[in-house]
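Researcher: Final request for today, and then I'll write up notes for the group meeting. The sequence and the SMILES for S-adenosylmethionine follow.
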Amino acid sequence: MRGFPLFLKLQGRPVLLAGSGAAAAAKLRLLAASGAQVRLFARAPSPELFEASRSLAVACLRGPVTADDLRQADLIVGAEGEDEADRALSLAARAAGKLVNIVDRPELSDFTMPAIVDRDEIVVAISTDGASPVLAQRVRAAIESVLPPALGRLARFARRFRSAVQSRIAETGARRRFWNQVFAGPIGEAVLAGDERRAARDLIRAVNRGEPRAEAGLVSLVGAGPGDPELLTLRAARALREADVIVYDKLVDAGVLDYARRDARRVYVGKSKGDHTLPQAEINALLVAEAKAGRHVVRLKGGDPFVFGRGGEELDALVAAGIRVDVVPGITAATGCAAYAGFPLTHRDHASSVTFVSGQSRDGIADLDWAALAKPRQTLVVYMGLGAAGVIAEKLVAAGLSPATAIAIIENGTRWDQRVIKGDLREAAALVRDHGIATPALLVIGEVTRGAQPGTRAELLAAAE
Ligand SMILES: C[S@@+](CC[C@H](N)C(=O)[O-])C[C@H]1O[C@@H](n2cnc3c(N)ncnc32)[C@H](O)[C@@H]1O
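Model: Predicted protein-S-adenosylmethionine complex:
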């Protein structure tokens, strides 16, 4: 560790800032946000700095900076960006016994200003000791993506109940466990969702009992996206990190489960046509029982939970049982597969609407409005349509759609083993058969698929390099 990290309380304290351009404007905004009394010296203020100083009501002094000015300041920041001026300021500040930072000049600085992730009470500062501000920004972006925007609210909530918890749970280890469970469980989730009344009520009950779990739990119906784990949403990744139990389907990629806590219990309820590891009613009962035991359950589904995912049935069962539910949408197979295969679902010249249909219903091939689906200038995405590809093509052609309409079949879309096969509608069944297409696969019908990049994902990536 080259620099010692400190958080300075600058409210009302004098800080001298010297500089004229964008860097000075950025530092001015940052220092003003911390409540410092900034004395700004700008020999030739840029329009941006002028505007920043005006909006923050900070006077723009023309200088020069005198020894007296330096003596009066607690901290000195130089952002001139000119070697001679920066060196002179650094020398003079040090001669006056003051700590100085010169932007992007670690050798002239006593302290550096870190990249910051700001969540009100929670502030994360990242330093590379001036070695690479760009690297610091990348680390910052990575941290930003895992800290929920409302984290500060959680900190304020914890502050509010800190002494109450301390007085009821005396032993330090027990208290740490208590808070960990609060933050990772339904109480923390309620605070982040803005439901502080419920969170406060549950926390008071839990504190009186000495443990936070026995309140009714929470089920998050989470969309895992079509395959590539990088298509998880930030909220889905957070729900996975916080879940006690993860109940997942066949279509969930193994890489997605890596986002879960190691000690989370994983329950596979994989469903595929004709192979229901657990019947739906038992899945519903399992979710209800786990939540009633006070656990945070993530019900993880491929794609989006509300697109051909039985999310609606599970939601109804949970609501009927009085369980708290939240729904985290996911990227559905249609949008994920089209994007990774390189074609749009709508296009001003070829398709002004897109329809998602299921190729199968509870009792066989779906009974769809073929006449409506056969109209030109639209895209039809068929989920679960592999087995019925030939029948679907026949019905559409019989309803008037040209047998020469372009189609694409996408197998394992967005995964490493994605395959894209192109052809036309009359060949649909033959393409599935001859290429040995296996589930999961989508059949996309419409002129937009002419732009699809055929082949495997590995081939596509290799071609792009
Ligand atoms: C039960 S549905 C689930 C759909 C999911 N909820 C969604 O929003 O994507 C399963 C069907 O979705 C399609 N599917 C799901 N993931 C896919 C993928 N990675 N590639 C191609 N098709 C996929 C297949 O048609 C599969 O038979």
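Model: The radius of gyration is 30 Å. DSSP finds 18 helices and 22 strands in the chain.
Researcher: Thanks, that's everything.
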